[in-house]
Design brief:
single chain, alpha+beta, Aminopeptidase, Alpha-Beta Plaits, eight-stranded mixed sheet, four-stranded antiparallel sheet, elongated, binds zinc ion
Amino acid sequence: MLQIDKNLAELTADLINIPSVSLSEKDLADQIQTALATLATLEVTRIENTLIAKTNFNFSSRVILAGHLDTVPANQNQEAIISQDSILGLGAVDMKSGIAVMLKLAQVVQEFKKDVTFLFYEAEEIESKYNGLEKVAQKNPEFLLGDFAVLLEPTNAILEMGCQGSIRFKISIKGSRAHSARWWKGENAIHKAQTILEIVNNYQPRTPIIEQLTFREGLQIVAINGGIAGNVVPDLVEISLNHRFAPDRTEAQAIAHLTELFADFEIEILDVAIAAPVSLDNPLVSEFVKQIDLPLAPKFGWTDVARFSKLNIPAINFGPGDPNLAHHPQEAVEITQLDTVFQRLSTWLKK
Ligand SMILES: [Zn+2]
């Protein structure tokens, strides 16, 4: 059984050793639920494999601390290895270390001067319909209410502000089929794709500075599908693209930008994840930034902070582990980062 009174490094290793690949989080959720049940100050609710643990001290503000339980599939790194200064293993960075920090904070909630809702949620790494926060939003949205949210996703133990949005879309180019020996009878759709490649290769992504942080947009072709047989002029090519956009643009503005960029083509939007603002002008955010007193950086990847922003709850990414090592076979987290995130958060929560 999971022992949350162990130190942060040992607890992280124990969490790594309970496999929890997306859609297989039950065992980990069971063990965390059992461990949380020993903490009398927390009211624990379970929705499938998502655990919500709340204090009800009636303080004037409520903080949400959130982390996902799932990992990507193992890559010969399932077993945790503790070295002198780091812990290696699947999810060490993304994000068993953040979960360990949350559990250690749950252990000392009696000392806090803010109410806290811990959200240990399932299925963040896969399609959003499985996401535990999405399910809580649908079934019990009251559990997501709070004044401020911290996502303990890996940030190298600095504050990563906002997050960029993401649009997946597809462009289909049509031609007409013919025998390749009499190619002039047809129209090659793959050849026509050249225009799209040129647009993408010549694209100058914006690097907008938002509240002193430099974001970096992107436009990438992520797949091309086309071709019928070795002797057929293809009549269709489908190009899949991914656009990452900074938080100074809304979903509608980002789509309008793509529509204009590919004006001669029809684009099919596959899914959109909205960006989250930096929100340094929000008093809760600025107070948090001041108290935590660590460097600030923009968040390039999409995280669930956007989900809280949509609910008008300011949210920040702050967690142990180098995000460049997330999903990497050599995923490892430095023990000093575990301690930093725990210390800074607990000091802030006690004020
Ligand atoms: Zn993650």
